[in-house]
Design brief:
Layout lengths: L1 E4 H13 L6 E7 L4 E9 L14 H13 L3 E9 L8 H6 L6 E6 L5 E7 L4 E4 L1 E4 L1
Parallel strand pairs: 1-3, 1-8, 4-5
Antiparallel strand pairs: 2-3, 2-4, 5-6, 6-7
């Protein structure tokens, strides 16, 4: 299960809207575990060659974000990105690029209305997890 603070959820949705037809991405921070809790969402620049259909976090910005999370006493819960035109689930490319087993990969899809779903990477496949937005 992934519990996400309303503020972090809103940040992801707003970043997605601001990204327009390009995917946005970032790091989920908080408390990692079987029932992870996200308190913050840190956007990281998407430097993919085709940001309309792919995301690639800027490596230096991602490392700086990971350091910032650790310095704040938080843990990396996982990662997020948007699918501006759907689908609201991980793609084959998402599975090929997933590298943090046991961590959450949230996707915010905008096919008609914002939808945020999350999947745990199990090392060889994604497993859907329940998402709870906490006020």
């Amino acid at each position: 299960m992934l519990t996400i603070a309303r503020r972090a959820y809103d940040d992801i949705v707003h970043q997605g809207y601001e990204g327009g037809d390009e995917e946005v991405c970032g790091v989920l921070a908080g408390k990692h575990g079987d029932e992870s809790r996200v308190s913050d969402a840190f956007g990281v620049e998407n430097v993919a060659e085709t940001p309309q259909i792919r995301y690639a976090m800027d490596p230096e910005a991602q490392l700086a974000t990971l350091d910032r999370i650790e310095d704040a006493g938080m843990e990396v819960v996982g990662f997020y990105h948007s699918h501006p035109t759907g689908p609201p689930r991980p793609s084959e490319t998402d599975a090929e690029r997933a590298t943090w087993p046991g961590h959450s990969y949230a996707i915010c899809a905008f096919d008609g209305y914002p939808y945020l779903g999350s999947w745990r990477w199990r090392g060889d496949e994604f497993e859907r997890e329940t998402v709870v937005v906490e006020e």
